[in-house]
Structures are given as structure tokens and as C-alpha cells.
Amino acid sequence: MPGTVLLLAASPVGKGCLVDAASVLPVLAAVAPSVLSGTETANVVELADPLDPQAVLTRLRAAATAPGPLTMFVTGQLQLDRRQRLPHLALARTTPATVRYTAFPWHWVTEELRLRPPGSTNVFIDLHADADTWTHLAGRPLTVGPSTDLYGRVAPPPPRRTVAQPTYMRAVATLLRSGHRPPLLQLHQQALTRTSGEEAARPGVTDLVFAPGQSWAGQPWPPAPGFTTVTAPPPSPQAPPPVPPAAPVPVPVVAPVPVPAMPPASLVPLTLPEPPRNEPVGPGPSAAPGPQPPSLPRQMPAALPDRAAQKLMAPPSDPHGAITAAVRAGRHDEALALAGLREEEALRADGPGSEQVLHWMEVRADLAMFAGDPERSCRTWLAVAAARLDAAQAPDTPEVESAVDRAHHQWGRVDDPAAARELGAELARLRRRVPGRREGALDHVQQQLRQLQTQA
Question: Which phi and psi angles does 78 have, rounded to 5°?
């Protein structure tokens, strides 16, 4: 099966640039695709200094949903948005004041890769952080999800009026240009050895180093009680330290989806994430005014098919495996029933509004989308958003925004006019509380609703 390779290099234009990210692309592009991916053949997608975060999302989603192994090489710089203080990959037009709107949120990487089968995805990073982001990352390391292997480093800001070079990624590319692709941990360690002179030029400062089973400067993450964050040198290639098993890290299960003004690429079901982590219908003629959470959809088989019942009797270590297998085989009702049962279990064990329950609601929303049922998917995403707001989550938190954005996108695909009017009214009400990142989302809903009313 062919693999997929995504080469992404991005940095701001002008004085805000910390690293000459695009300079590494010619070296990476000179490597044979089969060596980059570790497969006999591979499709290579290159993004050099992209302007629009939505364009990056579309390419990332297409790569993440392609069958076969995926290898990503990401070079650039990280900055925090001023409102939520979340790490973003700065793009060509990014400035400190516009990070939230012009940069690519790093958690989108995690959310898109969450559907990948375990062991099929590798991400190499060579990132520089500005001073604020560097301090932030000292206690909050980057993650790409529990089923993806992350290699590379995040470096501190270079000296003032200096543009750094992506020496780690260039070392990776140079090693691969030999035509030999060593085991990836070995490749990572060899690249770190080649960049050791760079650290010697910055006494007292050590890059944040990432490798499987390690999430911060060679230390396991999350830290054990009493753990003190200290910098540590990269592992020696002659005597690599033992790599502890990766601890399960709660990861967001929602993924940001652009509103209908810029629809995303279609998704292909792969695997579903470990739980948990982390544009609707207003009142009908007889409903009372004011926000009301949409009812939880229960459109699933009354009895679980025998095959599904057998799968539920399997060890519970990976309940998502049976769901993934059912989706891939086109047994969407079975997948939905399995997720519904898990949700009921979480409801009994953890109570309504818990992250476990919300996780399985989000899984059901994705399953409805995979099954080609946008109405059900929209209703479920609306229910997720309402539940998060009822749990006192802020309207601008990524999980709430993402749930409303995904509901908005699925609403745009509802064909039945009556259902679209119903869902659209609820969506408009939510949009007043959760406007999202893209300007004009509420205006779009209201405009579409007016058109639907003329068709009534």
C-alpha cells in the first residue's frame, strides 16, 4: 500500500520570522519518496510558506485520511494566541496580534491524526518558539495524540535580529538522502548528534526533545508526582536510554471543521481515539423561548447485532477497534450501536456532562457523518456543544467552538428543508453565543434560514 508524506514548512514574512523554515524543503524534496515514507511508493504533498490555516487544514485532513502509512515533516515556529494561549504554527501572514486568525492551531494536528490507526503515523518536527511560547512549553509539552509517534525538537528563540536554521530537519533530510531509512528512533538520535554543535553555541539552553514514550526533554509525560521540570541533553546514540511505554494522554476528540463557506475535504473512517481528553434549531412553534439544548439523538438499533455483541465481549482495552472495523466494513448501524452502549456505560459510571460521555457523543457524531447522515451528525454536535456550555465551559474554548463549527458544517449538508429549518434555528441561537473564529458564521446561518423560509 502506498504511503503519504506531508512536508510542511512555514514561518512569517518579515521581522517576525524566527527560522528560515522553507530552506529545508529542497533537501527533503531531494529524498526519494519511498525513503521518506518507508513504503515502496508514496505520494508527497509539499506546503511551502502557506498563507491560510484553512488550506493547511484541508491538506492535513486529506493526508490523514489517506490509506497507508503517513509521515509528516513540520518545520517552522510556534506562537501563542493572546486570547486562549494555545500554541499555533505561525504562517506567512502571522503577527503576534493575529495569531488566532492567521496561524494554524497545533491542536488541530492532534485532532486530525486521532483517526489514524496506531503505529501508522510518524511526525518529525523542527520548531522554534518565541520567548513567550518557550516559557509556556516548559510545563505543557506538545502532543500529537497517543497513536502517533513524535520525533524532533522545539528550540528556544534565536538571538535578536537573527534568523535560525532548521538544523535538526536538515540533518534528518541529509541522512535520508543516502537512500537508507534507519529505524526512526535511530534516525532521530543521529540527527540530534549532528545538531549538538548548535546547542554548544547556546550555553545553558537545551532544546525540548521529543521521541516515542518521551514528551518533554527526554522525560516521560505526564510527570510523576513531585516531578520537577528541568532541561536535559538529547540522548546519546551510542547508549540510548530505555524508552518507557507511552502513558495514555487524554486528547481532544473533536476536530475543527471550517464552516460551509470553506467546506473541508471528505473524511475516511480509520480508527477512533482513546477517551476522553480533553453552523440549529431554535424552539418550534410551541417551544419556550431561550436557549435549550437539543435532545440527544437515539436513532440506533433496538437490539445489538450478534456480531456486535460478540465484539463487545472482547477485552475492553480498545473499544474503538470494533467500531473501526464495523465502519470500514460498512456496518454503520453496528458501529453506532457499539458507541451508544459505551456512552450508556459512561453515563451510568460518570454521570451526564462527564468527559467520558461527551467523548462517546462526539464519536457518534463522527459515525453519523461517516454513514452519510448529516442530520443526525448535526443534532449530535449541537447536543455536545450545549452540554459543554451547560457544564460552564467558555464559548471560546476549542472544544465548544469545534462542536459548533462541525454542527454548522453538517447542517449545510442536510437535504430535508423541514429538518434544515429546525436545525438552523438552533444553530443560529448557538452561533450568537459561540461565534467561532471565522467572521460571518452567524450571518451565513441567518441568510440560509431566510432562503429556507421562502421554500416553506
Answer: -105, 140
DSSP letter (8 states) at residue 294 = P
Q: Residue 65's Cα: distance from chain center in Å?
A: 12
Flag residues of the chain having pLDDT under 70: 197-205, 213-318, 456
Are 264 and 258 in contact, with CB atoms under 8 Å apart?
A: yes
Contact yes or no for 276/250 (Cβ under 8 A): yes
Which domains are seen in the chain, by residue range? 3-210 (3.40.50.1460), 306-455 (1.25.40)
Nearest CA to 167 among 21, 14, 37? 21
Cβ-based neighbour number of residue 407 at 10 Å: 33
- Three-state SS string across the chain, please? CCEEEEEEEECCCCCCCCECHHHHHHHHHCCCHHHHHCCCCEEEEEEECCCCHHHHHHHHHHHHCCCCCEEEEEEEEEEECCCCCCEEECCCCCCCCCHHHHCEEHHHHHHHHCCCCCCCEEEEEEEEECHHHHHHHCCCCCCCCCCCEEEEEEECCCCCCCCECCHHHHHHHHHHCCCCCCCHHHHHHHHHHHCHHHHHCCCCCCCEEEECCECECCECCCCCCCCCCCCCCCCCCCCCCCCCCCCCCCCCCCCCCCCCCCCCCCCCCCCCCCCCCCCCCCCCCCCCCCCCCCCCCCCCCCCCCHHHHHHHCCCCCCHHHHHHHHHHCCCHHHHHHHHHHHHHHHHHHHCCCCHHHHHHHHHHHHHHHHCCCHHHHHHHHHHHHHHHHHCCCCCCCHHHHHHHHHHHHHHCCCCCHHHHHHHHHHHHHHHHHCCCCCCCHHHHHHHHHHHHHHHC
Measured distance CA(182)–CA(139) in Å, rounded? 31
Give the burial string for 97-115 (b: 16+ CB within 10 Å, else e).
ebbbebbbbbbbbbbbbbb
Rounded to whole angstroms, how far apart are CA atoms 129 and 99?
A: 13
Backbone angles phi, psi at 121, to 5 degrees: -135, 130
**pLDDT, tens digit, 9 for 90 and up, residues 149-203:** 999 999 999 988 889 999 999 999 999 999 999 999 999 999 998 887 665 556 5
pLDDT at 204: 56
What pLDDT does residue 304 have?
Answer: 39
Q: Full-prediction pTM beyond 0.70?
A: no
